[in-house]
């Protein structure tokens, strides 16, 4: 059986900065910028990328955040319905706060423990993203977290099993892990716990 091949269509990094959210100044690194050259990926993530709140982001198990590009049209439409559209309606890769924008690999096909095998780097799926109020601010409307919870369009965090560079345009394959818990199952359980 031939293994499916997926594409890395965006690589983004961001620096922590203070942003006004809900009337207060909050540190965040959700705003990412595209990188076209090869970017080294070490045990704690992409070179040049920061996490503002290490209690909920970063570390060995959340070193890299990946997001399926197939969900971008949904968010463009959701923003338009919320009256947020405008000059940035297209949403550039990285708008979800992701480091890696993936094409062809949806959460519904990903399990905790699966590995993404790039040419020079291996990343292991550890958990889905848990959206917070910063995502509402980044999307520009207060129901963004709720919409992510309803759709399951959460993306997933990755640990770095083999450090090495990644670059826009390269392909990768998925090597199945133990397949005990899928990303959607884990996400639903997490969202249920937070809603109680």
How would you characterize this protein structure?
The longest helix is centred in the C-terminal third of the chain and has 13 residues, at 183-195. The chain starts with a strand and ends with a helix. The chain is built from four helices and 13 strands. The strands form three sheets. A seven-stranded mixed beta barrel has the order 1-8-7-11-10-9-13. It is α+β, with helices and mostly antiparallel strands. The protein is globular. The protein has one domain (11-195): M1 Pyruvate Kinase, Domain 3 (Beta Barrel).
Summary, kept brief:
The chain is α+β, with helices and mostly antiparallel strands.
What distinguishing features does this structure have?
about 200 residues; alpha+beta; M1 Pyruvate Kinase, Domain 3; seven-stranded mixed beta barrel; globular
């Amino acid at each position: 059986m031939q293994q499916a091949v997926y594409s890395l269509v965006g690589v983004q990094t961001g620096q922590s900065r203070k942003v006004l959210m809900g009337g207060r100044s909050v540190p965040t690194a959700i705003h990412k910028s595209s990188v076209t050259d090869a970017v080294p990926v070490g045990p704690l993530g992409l070179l040049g990328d920061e996490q503002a709140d290490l209690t909920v982001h970063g570390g060995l198990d959340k070193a890299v955040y990946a997001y399926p590009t197939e969900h971008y049209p949904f968010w463009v439409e959701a923003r338009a319905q919320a009256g947020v559209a405008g000059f940035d309606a297209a949403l550039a890769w990285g708008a979800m706060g992701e480091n890696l924008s993936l094409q062809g690999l949806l959460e519904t096909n990903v399990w905790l423990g699966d590995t993404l095998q790039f040419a020079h780097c291996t990343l292991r799926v550890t958990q889905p993203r848990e959206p917070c109020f910063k995502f509402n601010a980044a999307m520009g409307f207060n129901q963004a977290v709720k919409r992510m919870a309803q759709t399951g369009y959460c993306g997933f965090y990755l640990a770095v099993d083999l450090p090495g560079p990644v670059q826009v345009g390269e392909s990768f394959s998925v090597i199945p892990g133990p397949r005990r818990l899928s990303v959607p199952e884990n996400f639903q359980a997490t969202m249920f716990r937070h809603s109680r």
